[in-house]
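Box 3.1 A note on notation
Throughout this textbook, protein chains are presented in two layers. The first layer is the amino acid sequence; the second is a token string describing backbone geometry. Keep the layers aligned when reading.
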Amino acid sequence: MENIAPTWETKTIGFMHGFTLSNFLQYVEMEEKTCTLKITLDGKSGYLHFEDGTLINADENGLKGETVALRIIGWEDAQIEVQDAAAGVQKEIETSLSGLLLEAARLKDESDEVVEDETVVEQGILLAERQRFREAMMVLTKFLKAHPQNHKGWLWYSRCAGSLKSIEAALKRASQAAPDDPEVLREIEKLQLAKTRLGEGPVRRCPFCWSPLDRKAFQCGFCGADQIIVKARIMFPRRKVQEEVLRDAFTRFANVIALEKNVNAIYYLCMAHYNLNQLNEVLDLLNQAVKIAPEKKFFSEQLNLILNYMASATATYETARPDRPTDPKPRASEKGVNNKKKVLVVEDSSTTRKVIVLTLSQRGYTVIEAQDGLEALSKLNEEKPDMVLLDIILPQMDGYKILSIIRENKDFKNTPVIMLTSKDGILNKVKSKLAGSTAHLTKPFTPEDLVYTIEKYL
């Protein structure tokens, strides 16, 4: 021991010469030192008081005694400073140093086990949030065999179960382990509501609040959230939804998407926005889902429903289109033609612009965006588009002025320009024609109208 003894002087730092805090305390006991040790870790400090090698007291932030000593002894990678013995310290510790060291080691082992337990449960939770319920149940089943009193494990097991009977059994175990836990009580409330509506068959879970649902349910009976953009038209939730549930879901699904390109998480995040009538976010997310899983027609169908709704939501439809045949020609994309044409969209409404961009992108067009006349003219020279969709009412300069500038440029005098306006009047059409427009399209228009008109002139 003499060869590895620390230099005994003020401000000796721990771990010199291979000593841990435990080793150092045993050295103080063996040498029968009378001193105070200041133990520092992560900005907090505690004091261990020795008299003739016996630990007589400990203090940290005004607290004293054996419990404080155990906490300080358990600090790892701490700094040790040797000080003169503090005056007037009363003996409050009766347990021997060796006994305290053994108890501190036991408490550390228990703490490590709890951390390990929580890690396993978090692994199961992450799998459940990624909709990988079978894998989540395998992880949680193995864990719960070893830790049957872990209420969090049973709670999440219930959220992965596929029948009311299994859900009820798991929640009973969770309630026995933690009868007053608010999350468990809320889950039992959801179960009781579901039992009044569902039979004994298989169930699925609401992706927002985890309530059990019939597999074909369009709406959650607990949080009120729609599960799908239903039927052939937009039907926003007819009942009040629990916004706090949806906002929690935003975070959950965003975390999953950050880990992987999970198309289900993207769709559920989209539906959370849909339930709050945030249609711009819905469009972006549905478009992502279509790009990630183009083989799944469900996502493209849902996107088209939203596009049609948003295209028609700003005003009344144009009632007649004299130049449009009743049986329109098939779109170029339907005939297998690779469009790859460039279309410049000049529109100051971000919503309308987004609808047009997504509609045309779906058909294979390259779309360039501009929100005013100056940006439009700049993009025109840079990109040299094959066609221009030009709104009449724009900030700074109107569409007629922009069109006249386009027609004065020899490079673009024959470029098709379709004028967009919410004013359905003969005067606007005449002015558009006189200014040199190729065609006139009244807003709002259906995506089909838009595509038909573009393909007619390209």
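The radius of gyration is 35 Å. The chain has a mean pLDDT of 82.
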